[in-house]
Model the fold of this input.
Amino acid sequence: MTTPPYQPGYPQGVSDKSKVVAGILGIVLGSFGVGRFYMGHTKIGVLQLVVTVVTCGIGGLWGFIDGILILVNGGVDGQGRPLRD
Done:
């Protein structure tokens, strides 16, 4: 068995999670924190859900904007690896 090649600057290579899927989930279901749960950021996902409930839905804008930013800028998964395109 061979080890994957080392990529400088990225811990353990590139994530198996997709930037496009995370962005779309953030836009469509961002008020529930689904995009962040998918990426492995459970604390932020729970926080997005709590903010949405406490603000009676207005906090859902956070997830929508977060999804757009993930699509434009990318992001990292829960282990610090950059999302794949």
Q: What stands out?
A: DSSP finds four helices and no strands in the chain. The first helix runs from residue 19 to 29. The chain has a mean pLDDT of 89.
